[in-house]
Amino acid sequence: MDREDKIAPSILSADFARLGEEVAKVEKAGADLIHFDVMDGHFVPNLSIGIPVMESLRKVTRLPLDAHLMIENPENYVETFVKAGASSVSVHAEVCKDIPAMAKRLHDLGARASIGINPETDVLRVLPFAEHLDMILIMSVHPGFGGQQFIPEALEKLRVVRRELDRRGLKVDIEIDGGVKLDNIAEVKAAGANIFVSGSGIFGRGDYNRILHEMREKLSRTRTEV
Length: 226
What we know:
Blueprint: E1 6-9, H1 19-29, E2 34-39, H2 51-58, E3 65-70, H3 78-84, E4 86-92, H4 99-109, E5 112-117, E6 135-139, H5 154-167, E7 173-177, H6 185-191, E8 195-198, H7 208-220
């Protein structure tokens, strides 16, 4: 089943001294949503941004804010992030004790529910609960730092997840996050992804209009092969 392709620039790679301007530029260039990485220094070995930044961005963009919580104890924070402006929230299967309960809570808050899995995590950690979700997030780098190289093994995970979702007739998005750039975005679409997070593949690359246009062109010429 075909899904709408969406490009999600990750602000982890943006110029934080001009963050509002950077978001405005990618919005004007045709981005579909803004990917917002939250790191706590425990679940991943890095710290990033949080509630005040999301509240500020919510005031300057009309695009959906896609909160990716790479944190321990996400159940303590999801409501705060939704209230701050998150349209969708991804929590990680590795720290989510009850995926159906988390999905219900996010839906009750009015947000899209997503579960992410790290490169070393088997897809069976999330697939049994897919009917409760709006999106599954496949990490194609080890979370914690931007600018990493795409892990090729993520392609087979995409294929497995897409085949299973299609077999069950579930209209669940698959988001890919990590090392997605112009030179591989078609390959990851062919493997089954339809939401494409790209940080260093967009920010700091010059003309955002050109980059997003070229990404969109590659996606439009590519069919999912699974």
